[in-house]
Specification:
Length: 263
Amino acid sequence: MGNMETENLICPVCFGECSLFDVVDFNKSCQEINGKYFHLSGVPIYYARCAACGFCFAPEFSTLSPEEFRAWIYNDEYILVDPGYVEARPRENAAGLLSLFPHLPPSVKHLDYGSGNGLLANLLRESNWNSVSYDPLLDKDVSVERLGKYDLITAIEVFEHVPDVQKLMSDLRLLLSPDGLVLFSTLLSDGNIHANQRLAWWYASPRNGHISLFSKKSLEILAKGQTPNARWNFTSFSEDAHAFYTSVPSWAKYIKRPDAAVT
Ligand SMILES: [Zn+2]
């Protein structure tokens, strides 16, 4: 990494031409917001930004293999930049989902997409949810086509990590049942990334694997899809909690503010 082509950059969301935006050291991490700085790696990571839809991304990561992601990012030191990843956050998110859906019908099939170690789904199963996990980085031999359909898909702190947003969306479209709901969290870049300013946002951190940074407009474009049949509705409950759906399922109609529960 560190050798960046500057020409022919295409926005992976809206397919418009885009250009390089800024460069940060690979070791820039989300811990900087807590005053923790890791030594500079000397590896420059470029981010590009699409002026049309606001999507900001690190193009070099789009071609990394799962093995390379594990070597560079999701290695033994990842826990230093994301200490809650293994246990604390899955437990918080399980509690949040259980309080958001205290009476989820047992017929509702739930998939946690980008699940890491699978703890979230394990905890939900202990509360009698019909939950399974899938992680594209860990389950690379699993065919998404053969996973079946799910009524509720959660993707908590996943979108900012994906190297290929179109693959993410095609996976979600394959996996969601016709009147299902995708609940996901990723922090919106609106108000945090500005044209003609340096990329100073704490969330734009390659060491955490934050390589895809979404504006609200970019998520709206992804929701529309590329064919009329693929069109989903998109709702943002907060700058961090969002949903895709065709129509709100009956078991979720009462939700007004999922962000109060899903973190
Ligand atoms: Zn774009």
